[in-house]
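Please check what follows.
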Amino acid sequence: MIGVVASERDLEIAAELFQLFKTPWQPARPSRRYRVILATEQPTADLDANLIVLYSSRMLEHDAREGVSATPMAGPVDVAGAKTRFPLYRGLAHFDVEPSSSGLQCQGHAVEYHRQSGRCAVRRIGYDLFEEVRVLLSEGQPAEHALTPTLELHVEMLRRVLTECGVGFAEVLPRPASHDFIACLTHDVDFYGIRRHRFDRTLAGFVARASIGTAIGLVRGRRLLADAIRNWAALLRLPFVFAGLTADFWRPFHDYARADGHRQSTFFLLPFRGRPGVSPDGHIDARRSAPYQVSDIRQEAAEAEAHGAELAVHGIDAWRDGDSATAELGELASIDGARRVGVRMHWLYFDTTSPQHLETAGFAYDSTWGYNDAIGYRAGTSQVFQFLGTRLLELPMSIMDSALFYPGRMNLHDEAAAVMCRRVIAKAKRFGGTVVLNWHDRSLAPERLWGAFYRRLLGDIEQGNRVWFATAGQAVDWFRWRRSICFRAAPNCEGLVIEAPDRIESAGVVRVHRRDSTGYRTEDIPFDGSEPITTYF
């Protein structure tokens, strides 16, 4: 059990941190002894522990007692240690001690040092852990650090300290048993059928990009000849599509049923036609409106759902007020009777009040947190997390097609895009969590033709990895179950009982770290909640 010494404000952050690093903790009590105390302020003398991990960017009494000076440095600033590097957004303190080979450093200065006081070891770390976590879960990190899983590295840092000091503990890994991570194939449906777009801006843009734009892309090496021929053929077919003589080529349910195959997927559908909604600056951009709404495609949506797809809301104004959120949820629920509905905001609009609006309306989860112009980790993690001050769960988005390929965004060639996506996949294998793809409704069809890259990306996700392809709702439900797991002391107080209120089909993994006669080792135990696990250290 980790005892935490922190302000009341920081204890809320601690609660969420220890859902991500799923290991037992409690606010430190003077009456009991702990294996570990994690403190962000000077612990009082009546607290007893084998190890104290002391985080702060200020000079503390402990530093003065040890004769160590702490020099503040404003953030954002990068720190580095053995095989790791991550940003600190609220600054740090570095110490006038010799940096260790495995400890954190900044510009050659030590940001971590170790002292022994009798039977108690103290690890001093020069930044404010809970404040850094607060920034990641409320503001998110800028796109320049998008590929850094910063929050996971904070967890890894704490895990490293515990294992280096030989502390026995148990944690529930952020992945199902027999899998390395969860992959979610999600599709924002901004358009449904080119036939609905007669003499409008969308059709004009399609014609321009499929004709002149395709020719320019071919000359610049951004288009294959085969793709150019497909786009030009689509232009020639366009009159026949409008006349109803040939199939519409914007058919997302049909296209993704073929591309995703046996893998389940989630479609985010617009609730209302002709509603652009209001932007964060108060303006109304007509480009956000669409000539379809979910009730227009009731039959197609029902068929997709019958084949295993999940339907969710592509919110318009749900992010900005509760009445809109309720109405948009109700529109989807009215066509399929869904009780647990997720949401992702159109154009990824979101602000600090959005979680409350979405929670009040009754959404089961949100999946908006990602980047329009980058891929990676807006919250520094790919785990499902809970927005502070609410019970709303967030499934963070990892990779979006338009972020990779749009001019004015990353505008990458296929090879460069593949390299970046593989970095995200490799980190998912290392840390667990999820890889959430957002491939839009038109992205497999003319004129984008990003289907070949999409199929290649699915292959990269599967290659050498054990992957559970789940709908967004299934992934959130698995993490919701993991969050429900609780810990209590074994009867002799030397062990730990791990239990869950419900059984789950996709079991989790309890990893036990302990020291025994052979040294320090780990053991993985599958756990589905059917029976409690008791472990000793």
User: Anything to note?
Assistant: The first strand starts at residue 2 and ends at 5. The two ends are 11 Å apart (CA to CA). The chain has 14 helices and 28 strands. The CA atoms of residues 183 and 469 lie 5 Å apart.
